Amino acid sequence: MDFVHKEIKITGYSVGGIETSFILPHFKMAFDFGRGSEELIDIPRVFLSHGHLDHSSGIAYYFSQRALKNLPPGEAYVPAKIAKPLKKINDLWKKIEGFSGAGSIIPLSPNEIVPIQENYFLRAVESYHRIPSLGYIIYKKSQKLKEQYQNLAGHQIKKLKEKNEPIFTIVDIPILAFSGDTSIEFLDKNPDVARAKVLIFEATYIDEKRTVERARQWGHTHLEEILERLPAMENEKIILTHLSKRYQEKYFVKVLQHRIPPAEQSRFVIWNKDRPYFL
Ligand SMILES: [Zn+2]
Ligand SMILES: [Zn+2]
What we know:
By secondary structure, the chain is an alpha/beta fold. It has one domain: Metallo-beta-lactamase, Chain A (4-Layer Sandwich). It has 9 helices and 15 strands. The chain has helices at residues 38-41, 53-56, 59-68, 83-97, 154-162, 185-189, 212-217, 223-229, 249-259; strands at residues 3-5, 8-15, 19-24, 29-31, 45-47, 75-79, 104-108, 113-117, 120-126, 134-145, 168-178, 198-202, 237-241, 268-272, 275-278. The strands form 2 sheets. An 8-stranded mixed beta sheet has the order 8-9-10-11-12-13-14-15, with no helix packed on it. The longest helix is centred in the first third of the chain and has 15 residues, at 83-97. The protein is globular. Residues 50, 52, 129, 181 line the site of one zinc ion.
């Protein structure tokens, strides 16, 4: 099942420690490889958050399957610090499999920008895990009336347009943020994360049995930390992902309905295995 909000469509799979991979079919891109799904093979570029195997192990399968299907070589954008070892592993797999299929591993550092399609681009963003990691924000380039024209009536704007007055300015609107695995600093230190229309954020732990302290120890986020910041978060939709595998659906629904303020519940979506769950 898909999640759709405005121009954003998402499919994917996520369970903490097992597998995480999200596909954005409209943008022909994905976040994380998970263990390598069939749907992922047709996606020409994948942005990897970090090297833990629940996010990265599908990379060799991805390259190999694209070669088998005679698809153009895939592009894997990865945190710069793990680009070399990933290339090494990939070369070894090629030897083992006896195929020469190409595929590029492209290192990315925080704040680097990758054009996605006309009027959309992606920015790599620093995230905070136990190993080198990145989050990502997709922006839309949008026309906005310059401040001095904002109070004009429609017919006045039309007149200025006819005169070819430069009344617009271009603004970058964050439409989607993806946290990967990270502690809450990803939200605190990158203001655009809380402004993104859709936010995909990890919430590995959600109850008192696993504390905030423990989440932080492991470079993860606890639901409580997100809820504390909720009043300042402008996100239209917040998709909680990477929930610990210990939580069964019945249980997490009960906990989330209890903990998330009723007026805020419609903003939340829980990604449970291969589908979004709406509270
Ligand atoms: Zn993980
Ligand atoms: Zn991880």
